[in-house]
Amino acid sequence: MNGGRITSEEKSAISTYVGAGIAVLLAVVGIYFFFLTQKEKKETTTYDPNRPVPTEAVLKGRLKAEEWSVVRDNGSQTPFQNEFWNSEKVGIYVDVITGEPLFASVDKFDGKVGLPTFTKPISYDVLIEVPDNTNEMQRTQVRDKRSNARLGHVFADPQSPTGRRYVVYSAALHFVPVEQMKDRGYEKYLPLVEKK
C-alpha cells in the first residue's frame, strides 16, 4: 500500500481471497445439500424397521396429494385407473409411509374390483382392522399398525384360500421389484417371491 492507496497487486490478491472464500462457501453448501438429498433418498427408498415414522409435516412434503388423501384423509381411488390394480410384476408391496412390507405379489389376484387385491398380508401382525361405517356401509378398514396409514378394506371371500380378500388402494403402497429387494433392505423377504 503506497500512501493509503491500494495497488493493483493488492486488489488482485484481495479478489483472489474473496473469490476463493466464495468458492469454498459454495462447495460446503453444495456438499451439505448433496448429503441431505442422499439422506432423504435413503429414507424413502430403503427399509429400516428401526427408522422412526416421519412426522405429519415431513409426510405432507414427501407424499403425493393422492397418497396423502388415501392414507391420511380417508380418500379413495378410481377403480381400474390406479397404478397397481392390474400389475403382475414380481416383488412386494410396502407401506407408502414407512416402507413396511405388507403384501407379496404371489398373494395378489384379480378381484374384479379395479384395485390391488390380496389373499393375505405378509404378516398379520403389521395390520390393524377397524370398523368402518362410512357411506352407509358396514365394512372393515385395514390400516398399517406402525404408521396408521389407511390401506383399504378386508372382506370375507369364500373363494380365497384364506377366506378373506384385502382390497388395497394403490396410493397406499409402493412396489419393490424382486431384483431391487436386496439392495433396498428387503432381502429377508426374497423367499416369499422367488421362484422355487
Describe the fold and architecture.
It is a single chain. This protein is an alpha+beta fold and 196 residues long. The chain has a single domain, classed as Peptide methionine sulfoxide reductase (Metal Binding Protein, Guanine Nucleotide Exchange Factor, Chain A), CATH 2.170.150.20. It contains four helices and nine strands. The protein has helices spanning 8-45, 56-62, 65-73, 190-193, and strands at residues 91-95, 101-104, 108-109, 117-118, 127-132, 139-144, 150-156, 164-168, 173-177. The chain has a six-stranded antiparallel sheet with strand order 3-4-8-7-6-5. Strands 2-1-9 form a three-stranded antiparallel sheet. A hairpin with a 7-residue loop joins strand 3 and strand 4 (117-118). The chain starts with 7 loop residues before the first helix and ends with a helix. 27% of the residues are buried. The mean pLDDT is 88.
